Amino acid sequence: MTAVARYALADFLKSQRYLPQLVLYLGLLAVLHAVPGPVLQGYGASAGALLPVTVWLALALHNTEDPLQAAVTAVNAGGRTRALLGRTAAALLCGLALTVVALVWPMAASGTPYTAMELTDGLLAHATAVLTGTALGGLCARPVIRRPGHAFAVAALLGLVALVSRTASPVNGTVRLLSAAPPAPATTTLLAHTGWAAALLVALTAVTAALAHRRR
Question: What residue ranges do the domains of the chain occupy?
Answer without folding.
Answer: 2-215
